[in-house]
Amino acid sequence: MNKVTIxxxxxxxxxxxxxxxxxxxxxxxxxxxxxxxxxxxxxxxQNPPRGEIYDRNGEYLAQSIATYDLMLVPRNMAKEGFxxxxxxxxxxxxxxxxxxxxxxxxxxSRHRASVxxxxxxxxxxLLFDEGHYPGFYTNxxxxxxxxxxxxxxLLGDIxxxxxxxxxxxxxxxxxxxxxxxxxxxxxxxxxxxxKGTKVNMVDVRGTVMGxxxxxxxxxxxxxxxxxxxxxxxALQELGEELMKDKVGSIIAIEPSxxxxxxxxxxxxxxxxxxxxxxxxxxYMRMLNNKRNPLFNRAVMSAYPPGSTFKVANGLIGLQExxxxxxxxxxxxNGYTIGRGVKCHSHASPLNLYDAIANSCNAYFxxxxxxxxxxxxxxxxxxxxxxxxxxxRSFGFGRKLGSDFSSEYNGFVPSAxxxxxxxxxxxxxxxxxxxxxxxxxxxxxxxxxxxxxxxxNRGYYYIPHVVKKIDGRDSLxxxxxxxxxxxxxxxxxxxVVEGMYRTVxxxxxxxxxxxxxxxxxxxxxGTAQNPHGRDHSTFMAFAPRxxxxxxxxxxxxxxxxxxxxxxxxxxxLMEQYLTGKVERQYLVDQIKSTHIAYPHYDx
Length: 602
Prior knowledge:
Blueprint: H1 3-28, H2 30-37, E1 41-46, E2 53-54, E3 60-72, H3 84-91, H4 95-108, E4 114-120, H5 122-130, E5 136-145, H6 152-155, E6 158-160, H7 163-168, E7 177-179, H8 182-186, H9 188-191, E8 196-202, E9 208-211, E10 227-229, H10 233-242, E11 248-254, E12 259-266, H11 279-287, H12 297-300, H13 310-320, E13 334-335, E14 341-342, H14 352-358, H15 361-372, H16 380-393, H17 415-422, H18 444-455, E15 459-460, E16 466-469, E17 483-484, H19 492-504, E18 521-527, E19 535-542, E20 549-555, H20 565-578, H21 584-592, H22 598-601
Parallel strand pairs: 2-10
Antiparallel strand pairs: 1-8, 2-3, 3-4, 3-5, 6-7, 8-9, 10-16, 11-12, 11-20, 13-14, 15-17, 18-19, 19-20
Helix pairs in contact: 1-2, 3-4, 10-20, 13-15, 14-19
């Protein structure tokens, strides 16, 4: 082979190598194409407006308003610098804050966009457009606005995503926002919408030259879906007003649907405080508040049910055949067997109706022992296990399955629990369970659901806070399913009569809950508290027939159920059933009631 041929072969091989390399760069390896495109194209994420949240009557609970993030691509910044004072004034931040964020953006990436100022108002965006700041641009997004400033724990808060969230969910990128609690969290996938993309042509200094190919590559964002909640705004507002400066919660449910009409956790917070640039400072302030306004007591608290639980033991006794409505037991200011259980003074002996109305402790001690010592069971463990199954069928001791992920399980002890704790034990060991004390724990949601179950004469729907999601014909099927207790419907009329006498009968402990021309059925409770005065609690429903509202009220350290919880429940039922409150004197009385909380405030 001569030298010319060899030289030609070498040239051909070199050209072939270049051709192959060019093919790989331009066709096979798209990263290089993407890098080239990014020199002239800017892909801007179009953030969708978050879906609105309404109350059951169409009133706004949460809206979205326009805001703008100030973005920066560091490599496109002007080499000769820019007027940082002017830009800081436009963005309404200090020069120090602006410089700090610019340096952070440079450390993150010189080629990728970073947020340097979050949530600027429209006025700042217009001022920015009048200036010239190479490398900077604005990106539209929305932020929450809460026009009525209620329902902080109910609605929940929205915050910036963490690295962990970004790594676990491909939808989110740096600077995105997500619902962290309440409805905003439970329905995040519905409310957040779908992001879009806008492709702009830019020059080497980052100045937008126009839309790329007339926008044919743009992808519009899809706004989040609106949600209509089950909440009655007027009821929610009154509930928060009555619970101001108190610690506790209120839950009201529509028995025929399981729809949550109100959810008050006190203390609460203005949801507007947890949006915008001051969110971090406000969040830390609330986090350090010993009364813990960020804690949703309505679904997360572990309270003893107290005397409201006597109704459950009455129902179990009737179903088990160890009790009749007319059966009487004596009370000598309490139950005198064993260590005994004290009781207040009242007529004696009483039947079941009046034992409920007068909240007799001794009566239900007799009933509880008869249930678990029943000779048809081989031993107390079996009898107690049967009692436990009944209690769980009422919705205690487990999550109900509501649309709040933070829902408390509650606690119902088992026979094995007592065996582990005491070794040998008997019915006197667990006698405190007869009056809703001891190891029992429930959330206000579970107690309100129990009230709804009695109102329905033996079944409940899973409590939920969303009534309608736009574009959908129905909710999750589980919210339409009836959940029956282990007690026959016929037995509920007996305890309903007892609860009616609690409010309407002579000597009834819940007479303060009386509403003119309204058949209210209720049960007072005084839940023991290791941190001071007992908790005041009350559960009720109205009207007696075809009930429209069931309610549970817990006010910590407020004493007897009749003193604070029952009046609050009565006012709220009046508001919901009649559309107004006539007894303004009672509203003023509750609002002026001062309760000391030394264990929170010290």
